[in-house]
Write a structure and sequence with these properties.
Blueprint: E1 32-37, E2 45-50, E3 55-62, E4 65-72, E5 80-85, E6 88-91, E7 94-96, E8 98-103, E9 109-115, E10 119-132, E11 135-143, H1 144-155, H2 162-177, E12 187-188, H3 205-212, E13 216-220, E14 223-224, E15 229-230, H4 259-263, E16 268-272, H5 284-294, E17 305-309, E18 312-317, E19 326-327, H6 328-336, H7 341-348, E20 353-356
Parallel strand pairs: 1-12, 15-19
Antiparallel strand pairs: 1-11, 2-5, 2-9, 3-4, 3-8, 5-6, 6-7, 8-10, 9-10, 10-11, 13-14, 13-20, 16-18, 17-18
Helix pairs in contact: 1-2, 1-3, 2-3, 2-6, 2-7
């Protein structure tokens, strides 16, 4: 799900099994993805916990050089606390411009990152912690296929048809290779970029789908497509122009019929207001602005109708998300009916081709 170009997608709660066996992919020439994580919580304190039996190197970086601190999961050093103070990152008695954490040999490793009292999440990669505007910025560097698996596990339930999971993997990989969307890191872990949670177990259906499509992405006119997708399209996907955007030279996204959504219609209703102007159903950017004002549940999808009701507006819609690109429920329906992931991608992304990345 992505906004991609500032689009918002309704995120769903998923239950993903995480074990010590992770989707840890070969260190061959894979693209490294830098994810800014947990930024929604505006953390001023972060706790780092190593995976059990994992020796980690935590290193400070400053203009005065580097000082290394070893965190050993077996020696009782279970946690390092980072906090922000006057534009610096403090760990114990040490202050630095930034810190990195990795396996002792500098490679990726498993760790938990915690915003006290709010959230704890497991990652596999290298961690960078910086200070910016009075907050801690946490960046996780992970290899591309690990990132794809982590996103797919967040976007689709484990029980989804395998061919739909494969289609999701290709779309996600395509988005991650089409180019970064932030300055300090490549992508954030929200629906602004790619919803990201912990990597799945190596024997999960998600991991199998990612491995089966390893390196595959979508291309349009020879360039990777920042593939967009949403939960339910309401029976017809939308083009970029349908949501108030001009594609330029980028993939335009064609409006296609979705048989599953037509057979399984959904209607949502809500009321917002008072507001002098009716909410916009043809501009995704405006929908996001209004959803931030009235609540994400108040305007969960595009293409709705707004009717004046008292001092406010009564809304009625039939889609969840922006409706551009692949419909995730529709992909599941196609897979359940016997379509493979090639057919699913060809249907929702017409005029694209599949390419094999390095």
């Amino acid at each position: 799900m992505l906004p991609i170009i500032a689009l918002l997608i309704r995120a769903r709660r998923l239950h993903v099994l995480i074990s010590l066996q992770l989707v840890i992919l070969s260190a061959s020439a894979q693209q490294v993805i830098r994810f800014g994580v947990l930024g929604l919580f505006h953390p001023q304190e972060l706790l780092l916990e190593p995976e059990s039996r994992n020796v980690r190197s935590v290193t400070s970086h400053d203009s005065n050089g580097q000082a290394e601190q070893i965190l050993n999961g077996e020696a009782g050093h279970r946690q390092i606390v980072f906090r922000v103070e006057e534009g610096r990152v403090i760990a114990g008695s040490r202050s630095a411009r930034s810190w990195t954490a990795s396996a002792r040999d500098g490679s990726a490793s498993g760790f938990r990152l915690i915003v006290p009292g709010k959230i704890r999440r497991f990652y596999f990669g290298k961690l960078i912690i910086q200070a910016q505007d009075g907050e801690l910025v946490a960046i996780v560097e992970m290899e591309r296929e690990t990132a794809v698996a982590s996103v797919v596990a967040s976007e689709m339930v484990e029980s989804a048809p395998l061919e739909a999971l494969k289609a999701q993997a290709v779309a996600t990989r395509s988005f991650l290779t089409a180019g970064p969307r932030h300055g300090n890191f490549d992508f954030c872990d929200t629906t602004h970029c790619q919803f990201l949670k912990s990597p799945p177990a190596s024997d999960s259906r998600v991991a199998k789908a990612v491995e089966a499509t390893r390196g595959l992405a979508l291309a349009y006119r020879g360039k990777p497509v920042a593939a967009m997708y949403s939960s339910r399209c309401g029976g017809q996907t939308r083009s970029l122009r349908d949501v108030g955007m001009e594609p330029g030279d980028a993939y335009p996204y064609y409006s296609v019929s979705c048989a599953w959504c037509r057979r399984h219609p959904l209607t949502w209703q809500s009321k917002i207001g008072p507001s002098a102007q009716p909410p916009q159903s043809t501009s995704e950017n405006q929908r996001i602005i209004q959803a931030r004002q009235w609540g994400w549940g108040a305007i969960p999808g595009s293409g709705f109708k707004a009717t004046a009701e008292g001092a406010g507006w009564h809304l009625e819609g039939h889609s969840l998300g922006h409706g551009v690109g692949m419909c995730q429920h529709g992909a599941g329906g196609m897979a359940a009916s016997g379509a493979d992931y090639h057919a699913i991608l060809a249907h929702y992304y017409p005029n694209t081709s599949e390419i094999l990345l390095p």
